[in-house]
Design a protein that fits this description.
By secondary structure, this protein is α/β, with parallel strands linked by helices. It is built from 13 helices and 14 strands. Strand 13, helix 11 and strand 14 form a beta-alpha-beta unit. Helix 1 packs across helix 4, helix 2 packs across helix 4 and helix 9 packs across helix 10.
């Protein structure tokens, strides 16, 4: 049995990340907050000004520019037409620093005594539990395996997996490492740097960012921890050409040609994961109209002659039902009766993770029984 977990922005909300519809509002708040930790305020100003400058577009067409994905798509098209990369670069910087500022971790104080506390960095409970489940599967080495496909730029789950001693494979090589969990980031990461000269991606070692230390300062123990993986990448130039890295942020649209050579293996592994999946769990992903790339990837990847999908969970708060409507329109008639939609409170990441252990770790029949009666 093989389960593929597909993660969208809703899977990182409990860690502090904004949803796509709220992202630019959060970025503007950080710009105007003198106490925020953002470093590139000029990029924030330019991106917000560009957003305001596009308001007149509504005179001839409607695009939800408050949604980060839509704004990225418009900026990307502008780049193609004007042959200018500056604004997309500024927006990528805004995405990286907004996520670094928004997402917080906590210290593990279980080993606190009068002299010191073990400074172990912990993710939010839902990501920790999911990481624990994936680590248990990896250690058990059973016939039931799992892989992760994510649209998220953050490194929350990676931190949790490192904390659980779970090895992951980002899928950059033709073959996945045996014994590792595939962790396929289709749209890039705040932990990846792109070298324009060498056309290659540099990845930070998330595990080294959560190293252990000791302290007796209670104020530090109680203060939320922020991890800034791209700042770590920026400390060192490209080892081949000595150029500075820029963020590897791939717009969620059809045009990904700039990153094709470096990410094509990741996308191939994602298709292969979908092709071998018996179960697919979609968490916090709303299938935006702008993401034609994933629609084609999913359609071709799941078109397997050797495997049969037995169960699909779609987990999304989806207050107005629009995400479910898009999913129902997209999912093929041949598997629609195997799809279980979880909305409202059942559509939260926390609720889903509570039931995932049954689905992934226990028997197939347990997983199927637990899904009956859900919306």
């Amino acid at each position: 049995m093989h389960t593929v977990i597909i993660m969208g922005a809703g899977a990182s909300v409990e860690a502090g990340a904004p949803l796509m519809a709220d992202f630019l509002d959060r970025a503007e708040d950080y710009l105007h907050d003198p106490n925020s930790g953002i470093r590139s305020r000029d990029s924030f100003r330019l991106a917000i000004d560009a957003l305001r400058g596009l308001r007149s577009i509504h005179a001839t067409s409607y695009i939800d520019l408050n949604n980060l994905e839509a704004f990225l798509g418009v900026v990307e098209m502008q780049q193609l037409l004007d042959e200018q990369k500056s604004m997309l670069g500024h927006l990528s910087t805004v995405i990286v620093e907004t996520l670094e500022e928004a997402i917080t971790f906590r210290r593990d104080v279980q080993n606190f005594n009068e002299r010191r506390v073990l400074d172990r960095v912990l993710a939010d409970p839902a990501n920790l539990e999911l990481a624990s489940i994936l680590a248990d599967l990896q250690r058990a080495g059973t016939m039931h395996t799992a892989g992760v496909i994510t649209f998220n730029y953050d490194t929350v789950l990676e931190v949790a997996l490192a904390d659980n001693g779970c090895s992951i494979d980002y899928g950059f090589d033709p073959a996945l490492a045996r014994g590792s969990t595939p962790f396929l980031k289709l749209h890039g990461s705040i932990g990846w740097g792109w070298c324009d000269t060498c056309k290659r991606i540099e990845r930070t070692d998330v595990a080294k960012l959560i190293g252990l230390s000791t302290t007796t300062d209670m104020s530090k123990i109680l203060t939320p921890v922020r991890i800034r993986p791209f700042e770590d990448i920026q400390r060192h130039p490209c080892r081949n050409c000595r150029s500075a890295f820029r963020p590897t942020i791939v717009p969620p649209s059809w045009n990904k040609s700039e990153y094709r050579e470096s990410l094509v293996q990741v996308w191939r592994h994602a298709a292969a994961q979908l092709g071998k999946a018996d179960r697919i769990v979609v968490i916090g992903y709303s299938l935006p109209e702008s993401d034609a790339f994933f629609r084609y990837l999913f359609a071709l990847g799941t078109n397997s002659s050797t495997n049969r999908l037995r169960l699909v969970w779609v987990v999304n708060k989806d207050d107005d039902g629009s995400a479910e409507a898009r999913m129902r329109q997209f999912i093929g008639r041949g598997i629609i009766d195997r799809v279980v939609f979880h909305r409202g409170e059942e559509g939260t990441f926390s609720y889903c993770v509570k039931r995932l252990r049954e689905l992934l770790v226990h028997s197939n029949q347990v997983g199927l029984r637990s899904s009956k009666g859900s919306r």
